[in-house]
Amino acid sequence: MIKLDGVHVRHKARSGGLFSRDAVHALTDATLEVKRGEIVGLVGESGCGKSTLARVLTGLQRPTEGEVLFHGRNLWNLPGGERRNDFGSAVGVVFQDPSTALNPRLPVRQILRDPLDVHRRGTREAREARVEELLDLVGLPGHTLAALPGQLSGGQRQRVAIARALALEPELIVADEPTSALDVSVRAQVLNLLVDLRERLGLGMVFISHDIQTVRYLADRIAVLYLGRIVEEGRAADVAGAPSHPYTEALLSATPSLLETTERIVLTGPVPSATNPPPGCPFTTRCWKADDACSAAFPAETSGPGGHLWHCVHPQTSGAPSGGRISATPARSTA
Ligand SMILES: Nc1ncnc2c1ncn2[C@@H]1O[C@H](COP(=O)(O)OP(=O)(O)OP(=O)(O)O)[C@@H](O)[C@H]1O
């Protein structure tokens, strides 16, 4: 349905002076496909490029290089009107914090009507009926329509934001950390709602989170980002169950599931600057397996069964995470 092909995004560095040519390499050579009805999880630490990738997928950010293909057509070669109308309605977005994503002065009824009005969908009566249908889809009672966002709980606000994202019957929802601003008690409800909607509506979804355990629960496939690069990608069971990249292993150990006994990997070295990324593997400075071979060039793509891909010179090959077996090294300590 949508494919990123060799996408690079470089921003002008904020810290540079007026005439500085310094660039932040927010995304480097990202290739990723989301098929109809599939949930792709995107994980990585803060600043690794998750939101940039979300902005590229939703057409809010034009790549510096590379292509965004929507049903095989280059998004940025489409006429502006087609891009805004057809692509704009095919992709819905849910942001992290519903308190800031929803206009506090508009009642829910108007918030849900806005996209239908802007895209001139159906008659006035049909739009009213759609608004009620949307509310029902996300499990909110009818009286919510008269409420202002400030009169709702965080979980209810996020349900309204999800309903708004669904208004134009999108094929794809991009959800950027949709539960991290919510109370722990309602996170599971919102996650279950997203899974339920995917099943009922056949939606594709890109779910972005720094928490690989949450993503593992939801996603069909996972892509792991590190300093703007996708370093591992594959079926969720392969990436989270038998990671090949040491960084994925470290992410998994940071939020161990209750059933696993892997020791925690605490990464110690510095994260390289995104303004001046190293020529080799960007994880070298924190990796306990790194040697000279890792610094020469960014590791080529290696593939395993089921479309499992990784970029690492010393991948984990045993089929099980090494955490719990490797003792602490200068680049890694355990806690
Ligand atoms: N408009 C911009 N101008 C300059 N640099 C930017 C801009 N937007 C993002 N960046 C930089 O690009 C890199 C990737 O940022 P991005 O927001 O995509 O990461 P992220 O993984 O979503 O982080 P977080 O989880 O903290 O939101 C970071 O180094 C960030 O500082």
Explained architecture:
The structure is a single chain. With 335 residues, the protein is an alpha/beta fold. It has two domains: 172 residues, Rossmann fold; 90 residues, no CATH class. The chain has eleven helices and 14 strands. The strands form three sheets. It has an eight-stranded mixed sheet with strand order 6-7-8-3-9-10-13-12, sandwiched between helices. A four-stranded antiparallel sheet has the order 2-1-4-5, covered by helices on one side. Strand 4 and strand 5 form a beta hairpin. Helix 4 packs across helix 5 and helix 6 packs parallel to helix 7. The radius of gyration is 21 Å and the shape is globular. The termini are far apart. The C terminus is likely disordered. The structure holds adenosine-5'-triphosphate (ATP). The site of adenosine-5'-triphosphate has 13 residues, from strand 2 and helix 1. The site of adenosine-5'-triphosphate (ATP) has 13 residues, from strand 2 and helix 1.
Summarize, please.
With 335 residues, the protein is of the alpha/beta class. The protein is 32% helix and 22% strand. Strand 9 and strand 10 (229-235) form a beta hairpin.
Radius of gyration: 21 Å
Q: What is the H/E order?
A: EEEHEEHEHHHHEHEHEEHHEHEEE
What is the level 1 CATH name of the largest domain?
Answer: Alpha Beta
What is the tally of beta strands? 14
Q: In angstroms, what separates the terminal alpha carbons?
A: 42 Å
CATH architecture label of the largest domain: 3-Layer(aba) Sandwich
In total, the number of domains comes to 2
Kindly report the spatial arrangement of strands forming the biggest sheet.
6-7-8-3-9-10-13-12
Quaternary structure state of the chains depicted: single chain
Question: What characteristic shape results from the CA principal axes?
Answer: globular
* Overall helicity: 25-40%
**What fold name goes in the CATH topology slot of the largest domain?**
Rossmann fold
Which hetero ligands occur in this complex?
adenosine-5'-triphosphate
Biggest β-sheet: count, sense, barrel? 8 strands, mixed
